[in-house]
C-alpha cells in the first residue's frame, strides 16, 4: 500500500510548464566606458604627437631653406670680393701707376725719390 500511495503522490503532482518566459539577455559590451576613455586619450595623444612632429619638421625645413639662401649669398659675396681683389692687384701694378703719372704730367726726379723699407 505504501507503494501504491507513492505512485499516486508521484502522479498527482502538478506539471511545471516546460516553456518558462525568457527575459531577453543584455548584450555585454566588449569594451567598457573606462577602456573607451583610455583608447580615446591614447589616440588623442598620438595625434597630438604626430602634429607636433610635422610642425617641427616644417620649421626645420624652413630653417634649412633660409640657411641655404644665406650660404648662397655668402658665396656670391666671396666671389665678388675675389674679383675685386684681382682688380685691385691689376690696377696697382707699377707700370699702370707710372703710365697714369705720365698722363698727368709727372716726371721722375731721381733726387726726390725716397725708399721706404718694405713690410
Automatic annotation (TrEMBL):
It is a single-pass type II membrane protein. Belongs to the FtsL family. This is Cell division protein FtsL. Pfam families: DivIC (PF04977). Signal peptide: none annotated. NCBIfam families: ftsL_broad. GO terms for biological process: cell division. Keywords: Cell cycle, Cell division, Cell membrane, Membrane, Transmembrane, Transmembrane helix. Coiled coil: none annotated. It is found in: Cell membrane. It comes from Planococcus chinensis. It comes from the Bacteria.
Amino acid at each position: 500500500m505504501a507503494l501504491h500511495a507513492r505512485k499516486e503522490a508521484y502522479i498527482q503532482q502538478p506539471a511545471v510548464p516546460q516553456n518558462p518566459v525568457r527575459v531577453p539577455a543584455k548584450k555585454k559590451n566588449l569594451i567598457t566606458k573606462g577602456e573607451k576613455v583610455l583608447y580615446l586619450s591614447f589616440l588623442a595623444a598620438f595625434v597630438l604627437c604626430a602634429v607636433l612632429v610635422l610642425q617641427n619638421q616644417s620649421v626645420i625645413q624652413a630653417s634649412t631653406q633660409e640657411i641655404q639662401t644665406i650660404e648662397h649669398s655668402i658665396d656670391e659675396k666671396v666671389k665678388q670680393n675675389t674679383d675685386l681683389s684681382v682688380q685691385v692687384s691689376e690696377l696697382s701694378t707699377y707700370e699702370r701707376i707710372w703710365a697714369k703719372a705720365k698722363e698727368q704730367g709727372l716726371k721722375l726726379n731721381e733726387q726726390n725719390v725716397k725708399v721706404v723699407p718694405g713690410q
